[in-house]
């Protein structure tokens, strides 16, 4: 009997990106359940994916410094993989890839290669024009001959206790919509005024409004300001959920409203429509994959003003810079996207 194909995936972070990677892994497991998958992943991101069927995880804790790399090396032992997907171009990930023995070391194409990425691989995925990050990840599955699917799907691991917890929190609400107001950087957050206006609008339409987010200071600060100025926040779960509990919460929501942040992609993975709020990055590349029609974006205006060209004439992934760009996103623009998404809820 021939030995099973051994695949190693190196994608450490971040939450949104590992959600994109789950779609690729789900595709591989659907078509080639015989492939043995080992995924080297960040400590925080592992908390979201722990228990995923058919995947062995090796956790990389960047806070452990040099010992983190040694721990991964020790966990791998003398294994030699048939293929390694180096799915992160950051130097930290590139250097970590050196401890992984593999016959095929597959990385990004030349244009997406940064920080010496090409020196750590011996193969590259096919170049793609105007590809979403998720589509870029799918290029790795293409490289080992996995059949394509018409649409991505996600096999996210949730236990019954996670579902039960979320439903206990929201069972008194009825139909609810989640606002996840904080991104990892303050400049990517929309205005408190905007969130307050949207919460009022949703309340007028008989939807309950739930706040969610991580335990960090940015999340706490903006959520506190929203609650100070709004009487329409029905439940505040910011910093009060595990990642898996948040995933269940987002899954049962009618809609999720969020800037460029992980919960937007978590919601997408669970089939929930997302109103994405963008100013610095092109949502066609980094926005919620299945909710592109519902994104409120001022990126196009910002990037043309800064670069003097439309985004189609600039390198893919060019970001706009500035601390106040999200203030250019008008409340009326977002409310129109909310109306569109609500009309499509039952379709």
From TrEMBL:
Pfam families: Glyco_transf_9. This is Glycosyltransferase family 9 protein. GO terms for cellular component: cytosol. GO terms for molecular function: ADP-heptose-lipopolysaccharide heptosyltransferase activity. Keywords: Glycosyltransferase, Transferase. It comes from the Bacteria. Transmembrane segments: none annotated. InterPro entries: Glyco_trans_9, LPS_LOS_Heptosyltrfase. One of its GO terms (biological process) is lipopolysaccharide core region biosynthetic process. The keyword Transferase applies. The lineage of its organism: Bacteria, Pseudomonadati, Pseudomonadota, Gammaproteobacteria, Alteromonadales.
């Amino acid at each position: 009997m021939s030995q099973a194909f051994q695949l190693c995936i190196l994608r450490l972070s971040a939450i949104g990106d590992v959600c994109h990677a789950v779609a690729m892994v789900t595709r591989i497991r659907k078509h080639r359940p015989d492939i043995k998958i080992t995924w080297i992943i960040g400590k925080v991101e592992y908390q979201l994916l722990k228990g995923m069927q058919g995947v062995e995880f090796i956790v990389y804790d960047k806070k452990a410094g040099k010992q983190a790399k040694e721990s991964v090396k020790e966990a791998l032992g003398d294994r030699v993989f048939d293929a390694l997907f180096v799915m992160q171009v950051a130097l930290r990930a590139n250097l970590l890839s050196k401890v992984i023995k593999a016959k095929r070391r597959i990385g990004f194409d030349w244009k997406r290669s940064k920080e010496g990425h090409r020196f750590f691989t011996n193969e590259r995925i096919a170049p793609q024009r105007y590809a979403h990050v998720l589509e870029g990840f799918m290029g790795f599955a293409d490289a080992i001959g996995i059949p394509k699917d018409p649409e991505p799907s996600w096999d996210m691991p949730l236990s019954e206790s996670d579902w039960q917890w979320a439903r206990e929190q929201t069972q008194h609400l009825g139909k609810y919509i989640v606002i996840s107001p904080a991104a990892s950087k303050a400049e990517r957050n929309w205005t408190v005024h905007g969130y307050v206006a949207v919460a009022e609008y949703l309340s007028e339409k008989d939807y309950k409004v739930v706040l969610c987010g991580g335990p960090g200071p940015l999340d706490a600060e903006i959520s506190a300001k929203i609650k100070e100025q709004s009487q329409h926040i029905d439940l505040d779960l910011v910093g009060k959920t595990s990642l898996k509990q948040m995933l269940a919460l987002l899954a049962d929501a009618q809609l999720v409203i969020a800037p460029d942040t992980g919960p937007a992609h978590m919601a997408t993975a669970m089939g929930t429509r997302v109103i994405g709020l963008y100013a610095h990055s092109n949502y066609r590349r980094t926005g919620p994959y299945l909710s592109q029609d519902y994104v409120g974006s001022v990126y196009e205006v910002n990037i043309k003003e800064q670069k003097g060209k439309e985004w189609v004439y600039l390198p893919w992934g060019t970001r706009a810079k500035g601390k106040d760009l999200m203030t250019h996103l008008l409340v009326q623009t977002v409310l129109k996207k909310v109306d569109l998404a609500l009309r499509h809820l039952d379709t």
